[in-house]
Amino acid sequence: MKLSDLKQGQEAIITEIEDSSVTEQLMEMGCLPGELVVIENVAPMGDPIAISVVGYKFSLRKADAAKVEVKIPAGYTNA
Hints:
- By secondary structure, the chain is mostly beta strands.
- The protein has helices spanning 23-28, 62-65; strands at 11-17, 36-42, 49-53, 56-60, 68-71.
- It is globular, with a radius of gyration of 11 Å.
């Protein structure tokens, strides 16, 4: 599942980040495999999305979020 597929309020664990021009920036901001990410807000037209990871909140283009692979924690129900 991709980070871009999640809806506002959903949480997931980052499993992988595809190699792209923003990979290094994402990793510097705490988007590392194993970290919990929360979709804080989604713009009215669906782009960008605001996420929270390791205490940081920032906006991310949906195209860049599509490069982040996530999984829903086992036994966890999202909003």
